[in-house]
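ok new one. same drill as before - structure tokens go in, u give me an amino acid for every spot. 238 of them this time. try not to just spam alanines like last time pls lmao
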């Protein structure tokens, strides 16, 4: 009987159309702005491992400035530019998501609380720290980076060139492990070229960073971390 009432009743059909319009309006009012913001201005990401210990932990979730917004702003801009010490999302795949796949990925990450994303993308994405900027001279002694900024006459440790302090995890290397051996904690001086950045893991046990990749081009940086929104006990700027 209820089925026939829905089929033949004008009032029921009108109520059903009203309900559909309400859901469509809700989608337009909430999800469309979210899609626009996530595609062009901001994105979200999660740290999937312990490579950024001790300051960042596995499961930390961040809001990143998008590739689009920081690319159109000069490096001196606070929200868009890259500075030493910034946490960034690195995409070593070297290709930016297409517009349609970016929207689908945004929705998928939203509805799964960042647990699921489009296949084939996450294996190329890493959360790292910017250590040196274009034109800098970079060397490493006992896993600590020394940076000579472009135009400067002397070098400083990585910790002396940042606005916000951070800590790193220094691995214990066997006494007989010479400086010439891989991952010894020492690196000869290199000079970054235009649009090249040197990024590292805070846990220096992990070498899946510029020590093995080399300096990365700016196009590999998909966004800068602006805010840590999870866990709630550690909300704030990373």
């Amino acid at each position: 009987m209820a089925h026939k009432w829905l089929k033949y009743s004008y009032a029921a059909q009108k109520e059903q159309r009203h309900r559909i319009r309400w859901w469509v309006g809700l989608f337009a009012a909430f999800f469309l702005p979210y899609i626009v913001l996530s595609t062009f201005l901001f994105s979200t990401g999660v740290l999937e491992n312990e490579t950024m210990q001790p300051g960042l932990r596995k499961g930390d979730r961040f809001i990143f400035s998008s590739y689009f917004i920081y690319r159109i702003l000069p490096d001196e801009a606070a929200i868009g530019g890259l500075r030493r010490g910034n946490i960034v999302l690195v995409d070593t795949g070297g290709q930016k998501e297409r517009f349609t796949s970016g929207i689908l990925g945004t929705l998928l990450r939203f509805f799964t609380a960042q647990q699921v994303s489009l296949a084939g993308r996450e294996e190329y994405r890493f959360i790292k720290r910017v250590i040196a900027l274009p034109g800098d001279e970079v060397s490493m002694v006992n896993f600590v980076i020394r940076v000579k900024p472009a135009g400067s006459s002397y070098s400083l440790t990585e910790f002396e060139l940042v606005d916000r302090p951070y800590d790193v995890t220094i691995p214990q290397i066997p006494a007989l492990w010479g400086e010439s051996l891989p991952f010894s904690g020492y690196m000869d001086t290199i000079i970054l070229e235009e649009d090249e950045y040197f990024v590292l893991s805070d846990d220096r046990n992990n070498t899946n960073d510029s020590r093995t990749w080399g300096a990365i081009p700016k196009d590999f940086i998909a966004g800068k971390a602006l805010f840590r929104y999870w866990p709630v006990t550690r909300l704030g700027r990373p």
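The CA atoms of residues 30 and 89 lie 26 Å apart. and btw The first strand starts at residue 42 and ends at 46.
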